[in-house]
User: Fold these one by one.
Assistant:
Number 1:
Amino acid sequence: MKPKIYVTRKLNEGILAKLEETCEVTLWEEENLPVPREVLEREIREADGLFCLLTEQIDAALLEKAPRLKIIANLAVGYNHIDIEAATAKGIMVTNTPGVLTETTADLTFALLMATARRLVESSDYLRRGAWVTWSPMLLTGQDVYGSTLGIIGLGRIGEAVARRAKAFDMKVYYHNRTRKPEAEEQLGLEYCDMATLLRESDFVCILVPYTPGTRHLIGHNELALMKQSAILINTSRGGIIDETALYYALAEGKIWAAGLDVFEQEPVPANHPLLTLPNVVTLPHIGSASIKTRLRMADIAADNLLKGLAGLTPPNLVNPQVDARDTKR
Ligand code: DGY
């Protein structure tokens, strides 16, 4: 009997075919709509494996309905939408897709930083609505990137990749992280500092920490108050790390200069969200890792993780190694 897997979004044909070689696959066919909770609750009852996205809340209540489930293969590096503790308690493996999206997400982070600093979206809108009457010395002037100071909060793989890009722009780079990284300091010329110093000194602050209960609203009113009036905040991690109400007021009242946001506390962000009304905010729909090559590789890695786990092997990207694949082979 082939193991049964449930896949929560339409996947590339090649990846589906690979899963179908050894598994009985049921698929949520919609490409641009998430699977409704009631469908997921129904489908998970029979599933041995789940291939999911960050749009699904995999919580303890859902896992209670999954008596056969051995592995959850997540198509993302971040797994804050999965209750790891509950999965571990039930002996369910959870995997993610680290590494493969590092450079792509760092590219997007830097693109967002530059777009925000040089007001690219605002300038493009200005031109398209026919407002451009003449070249003018201070028209749509922004902030310099080259030679400025960057503060990176969270020096993981993506943080380091952003720091490498910053070095090519001759930026001074500060970082704050749970642990110091002497090797990265040495190789990339980074300077470690506490959060308050980083916020005070940086022209650009990039949020690159994972979203956990401990990092929720890490950047709120007090932190924003420490930043320079000319500073720009960039977030390509998870929306909940910033208190969006505090950010709105800081931007609207000119306490900081601008923000570039790829992620929001609620996604999709409602069209009437106050942050979307501000001209000094560049917003994107969570596309950090969205290059064709990277998204296909992420799906392929997630599929490999799933197949290895179901075959009784330890998947390469197991986030809860307390659960051993061999124990879950039922
Ligand atoms: C992730 O992998 O966590 C990103 O947010 C989506 O690529």
Note: Residues 104 and 293 are 9 Å apart (CA to CA).
Number 2:
Amino acid sequence: MAVKINTAFLKGFIQENELPLIAPFCELAHNALHSGDGAGSDFLGWLNLPEYYGMNPEGKAELTRIKDAAARIRANSEVVIVLGIGGSYLGARAVIEAIKGSLYNSRPQQGTPELYFAGNSLSPAYMNEILSLITDRDYSVVVVSKSGTTTETALAFRIFKELIEKKYGQDGAKERIIAITDKARGTLKELADKKGYETFVIPDDVGGRFSVLTAVGLLPIAIAGCDVDALMAGSEAGMWAAANPDLFENDCYKYAAIRNLLLRKGYKIEMLVSYENSFAMMNEWFKQLFGESEGKDGKGLFPASATFSTDLHSLGQYIQDGARMLFETVLWFKETDSDLFLKDEPENLDGLNFLSGQNMSAVCEKAFQGTLLAHTEGRTPNIILELPKLDEFELGHLIYFFEKSCAISGYLLGVNPFDQPGVESYKKNMFALLGKPGFEAEKAELLAKLG
Ligand code: PA5
């Protein structure tokens, strides 16, 4: 099994009889999910994406089209800007950085363009920084928005569309803009049809934060030169591994059950931890997936994250010794293809010869073990998720593992894991304050509140 849960460091936090007690509820959640009887059942398309791309003729054809588009963009672009926010960018960026490294854009690439993500904030400074990167270089734009109306993304696209049309003309721009959006609705779809951009469809039944294994994630991931076939093969392995209704045979469900038990005991914060710098954006993807899926109706674990050993020098004190309200889910990749051998130094001025003769990864492993012992001693429960290594296959497996455990977690909690009503509140206020037509009544009220 690629993702394996290790519960050895939950002793004293969860009793042996507690998993059997929650098992029937897991089975109910499994049945609701697989029969389509649960809340939000219009959004279950992600469950079968590995099969769709692996076996369905339409899915296979789309995967080929994604790879062809990626090859075309790789050939004609030094830089690619991916516009999107939330589920429309996090997964793509997370996979690319996890596989290619967090310094991907700073290294000379082998036939793949630099990739930057914009349209995910309203910061003019960030936008100007991105714009300064493309002035004299060949670039393409991938714009991703399921609704096709998200302000951050639409605003960024307006700016890039003007620039790209000015530089390459209408026909040239058509070759360099790809839109990933709803099959029928939204202004982006209308615009793409009118301008003749190549488009990919985000299926109706796949919500933003569950969309990384559609063209939303797969196109940018393929442009960066990652192996999307291996990613999908891994997700398929994850799908089969997580298909068993019996939680004692299914680590994905066991993880969902344990985090639910910990929440009931007052551990309200889950901190996802890894020892890989390149995993930092996967942490962000995880936080969106679980935060937006569970945080509603006054319920839900708060998802947080850390990169160790880096953050042991910032958050470590709190985890060891602060208020007892968080648990850690630690991802441990057992092997690495990228290691460093530590040599003996005759003078030993830095006193580090006790580390000589081993790989740096072995030192990291001791940090992992030492931290586990220290933090559990300090009364912070630790769930360990072990993976053989960090590559496309294992990451595909892990993505499916988290998506399905998130759905089961939501059902165990009694919430609809597939909606996000809370995200609308800030938008309504922002539109009213900006004077968008249709929000006149709210505007006066909000201005009075702001004083
Ligand atoms: O998970 C979600 O549904 C959200 O995070 C969306 O992905 C995000 O709000 C962007 O929406 P859209 O793709 O419609 O622009």
Note: Residues 85-88, 145-147, 150, 153, 207-209, 292, 420 surround 5-phosphoarabinonic acid (CB under 6 Å).
